[in-house]
Amino acid sequence: MSKLAQRAAELRRLLDHHNYQYYVEDKPEISDKEFDRLLKELEELEAAHPELATPDSPTRRVGGQPIDGFKTVHHRIPMLSIGKAFSADELREFDGRVRKALGKQPVEYVVELKIDGVAVSLTYTDGLLTLGATRGSGKAGDDITENLKTVRGVPLRLHTDAPPKSFEARGEVYMSKADFARLNEEVAARGEERYANPRNLSSGSLKQLDSRLTAKRRLRLFSYSVGSLEGTTLRTHLEALALLREYGFPVNPEIRSFDSIDEVIAYCDSWSEKRFDLPYETDGMVIKVNDFEQQRRLGATNKEPRWATAYKFEAEQAITTIREIKVEVGKYGELTPVAHFDPPVQLCGTTVSRATLHNAAQIEQKDIRVGDSVIVVKRGEIIPHVEQSLPEARNGKEKVFQFSKKCPACGAATAREPAAPTPSCTNTAACPAQLQGRLESFAKRERMNIEGLGEAIAEQLVEAKLVETVADIYRLKLDQLVALDRMGKKSAQNLLDEIEKSKTCGLARLLAGLSIYGVGETMATLLAEAFPSIDLLLAATKDELAGIKGFGPKRAESIYTFFHSPAGERMVSDLRAAGVKLTEDVKAKPTVGPLVGKTVVATGVLKNYSRKDIEDVVVRHGGKAAGSVSKKTDYVVAGEDAGSKLDKARQLGVPVLTEQEFARLIGAS
């Protein structure tokens, strides 16, 4: 072996060792800087001598070339979801069902933290990682092998000299609270919208077509079970966890086994407060029957195993006082009341000082007043929400909240339409808050994807009167941006580059970004499919617009009025002059499948999909993603804390699907 080959092998050994010490043993032996130095040396060595690279080289963790899309792969053993228990009584009911089915056999339970992440499958052939996949429908998922190779806790080769022919590990990919906070600080510094929570960010990171972007997210893994396995017999879940540790997988250390359900309940309760001190998010506990033969006897339903359940922690709540209600102005002029708390409260490990009250109708319905004591909860442990006021705690000093007759941003008159839930600013053309909201909406990732054009920069552009419409961003000059606060020459040039890049996004994303009332991403896609150029769209009559499935006269009127107003005509002219792409490359729609021609509404806090994911999937499968429930709705996908949309679906008899049922429906197409 040459000296270069020896050095490459030594670097791989060192990097694997230190990676294991950091991500599995949690006992780092060198600094991050030293680790990066070793990795860079190996990268340069392999770049100069490609013959020295190996399939399990640590350099694979930095990501490779972008791909066009994800292939669908089928799980050899289905990745079922787990049933939920929300109280000690429900855990005892679960225990009763288990013991009844097993007769007089003693039962041992294994209890683990339920990591709030993304479930994945990792398949190894002769010890080498050959396939990584999402859970997907449970029966089939996406091949995300290259992205999973960037997750530092995932062994690229099993730590054994005698690997099984085939081995499948299952686990949860997650992001630590510290890394999540770091990323949010970075996007906030660029003036972009912060990410909502670590789980959604982890899910989105694993769906990147460019694995180099995934690598930057510093995702981690906890492995929790073995899937398919050849050549080795395991008798218990605890043996499986021990084998995972032996093979180099990180396994959560907070795992205990108990013989009685009362001990299980006591252990679960012990984590109701301690969980907030963990460096990662967890939303419950998982309880499993330890013995595999007993698991086999208990079996599973079509949805979930009978030998396991997830105990969900109660939503945390706190009582505080509404010090004041401030009004924010949206991109359409809508006035949104926001409650500010005194004192701020701690919920799910974060400090909550404010929460939206949504609209005037909700304030009136819940009788929320300035000075009220209120109960605040975090729905889905993500969104702060004023659950209710406490009228019995009033002392007579509370004040009924009244919207001002003038816009807080521009001083123009406000008005409330009879059917509107809240008043709006009438100064559509010149209200700075509305323009700022439209700029932020235009720049969002799912629209024109202008990185760096977030709240802080949008506010400065409006204050400096550098823009009067969103089209004006294409006229910005370097010296104008450099003059803004905290904007250096490099940052200014980066923003100009992003603005230039956005010109190629296409008509659908442009339409979604123009803040046309009633036209979000889904409707913009349908509109661009029906009229794949701006000229065809401008030539369309109101009746032709209304004829698009799901549009109707009201939305058609909104679109027609927007483009045929003086402001709309000027907008199109300015965009055309700037060289923005005003056409759409329309793909053929599927003609068969379970969602073709179906209307789907998503509601509640979703765990495995973002709301946007659901809508994209529906559209890709030939359906329509709607925002409200009606008699024409075919399915409602309901997550946790689903509210009025779920109630209406039940009233109308619309089929309601869980996320897992929705995933299975898509998998069957």
Rg (C-alpha, Å): 27 Å
Number of domains: 5
Count of individual helical segments: 24
> Gap between N and C termini, in Å?
52 Å
Adjacency order of strands in the biggest sheet:
2-11-10-3-9
**Strands, total number:** 24
Mean pLDDT: 88
CATH T-level topology of the largest domain = D-amino Acid Aminotransferase, Chain A, domain 1
Any idea of the CATH class of the largest domain?
Answer: Alpha Beta
Mind describing the biggest β-sheet?
5 strands, mixed
Structure description:
This protein is an alpha+beta fold and 669 residues long. It has five domains: 3-62, Helix hairpin bin (Helix Hairpins, Orthogonal Bundle); 84-312, 2-Layer Sandwich (D-amino Acid Aminotransferase, Chain A, domain 1), CATH 3.30.470; 317-424, Nucleic acid-binding proteins (OB fold (Dihydrolipoamide Acetyltransferase, E2P), Beta Barrel), CATH 2.40.50.140; 432-578, 5' to 3' exonuclease, C-terminal subdomain (DNA polymerase, domain 1, Orthogonal Bundle); 599-667, BRCT domain (Rossmann fold). Helix content is 36%, strand content 20%. The protein contains 24 helices and 24 strands. Strands 2-11-10-3-9 form a five-stranded mixed sheet. A five-stranded antiparallel sheet has the order 14-13-12-16-17. Strands 5-4-7-8 form a four-stranded antiparallel sheet. The longest helix has 21 residues, at 3-23. 36% of the residues are buried.
